[in-house]
C-alpha cells in the first residue's frame, strides 16, 4: 500500500502509528487516570447513589441531587 495521498486516504498500520508519538499516548493515558481519581463531587455523589438501590429508585423520580440529599445528606456526625 502506498503512503497517504488525496487519491488513497488509507494508511497501513505501521504508518498510522507514526501520527501519534508514544510519549503523547502515555501522557494522554496518565491524564485520563488523574481525571478518574479526582472526580467532581456531584459525580461521586451520583455513583454512591447508584450503588444503593433505594437511592437510585428515589433518583428516578426526584433526581440524583435530591436522592443523595435524602439518603446521605442529612446525616449528623456523633462523637
General description of the model:
- The chain has 79 residues and is mainly alpha-helical.
- The protein has one domain (13-73).
- The chain has helices spanning 13-16, 22-37, 41-50, 53-62, 64-73.
- Helix 3 (41-50) crosses helix 5 (64-73) and helix 4 (53-62) packs across helix 5.
Structural class: mainly alpha
C-alpha termini separation: 72 Å
- Overall, the morphology is elongated
The fraction of residues assigned to DSSP E strands is under 5%
Contiguous low-pLDDT stretches (5 residues minimum) are: none
What sequence of helices (H) and strands (E) makes up the elements? HHHHH
Please describe the structure with a list of short key phrases separated by commas or semicolons.
79 residues; chondrogenesis; GLA-like_dom_SF; 5 helices; secreted
Amino acid at each position: 500500500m502506498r503512503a497517504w495521498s488525496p487519491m488513497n486516504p488509507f494508511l497501513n498500520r505501521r504508518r498510522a502509528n507514526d501520527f501519534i508519538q508514544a510519549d503523547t499516548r502515555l501522557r494522554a493515558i496518565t491524564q485520563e487516570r488523574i481525571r478518574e481519581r479526582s472526580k467532581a463531587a456531584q459525580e461521586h455523589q451520583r455513583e454512591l447513589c447508584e450503588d444503593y438501590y433505594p437511592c437510585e429508585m428515589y433518583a428516578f423520580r426526584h433526581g440524583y441531587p435530591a436522592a443523595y440529599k435524602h439518603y446521605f445528606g442529612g446525616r449528623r456526625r456523633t462523637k
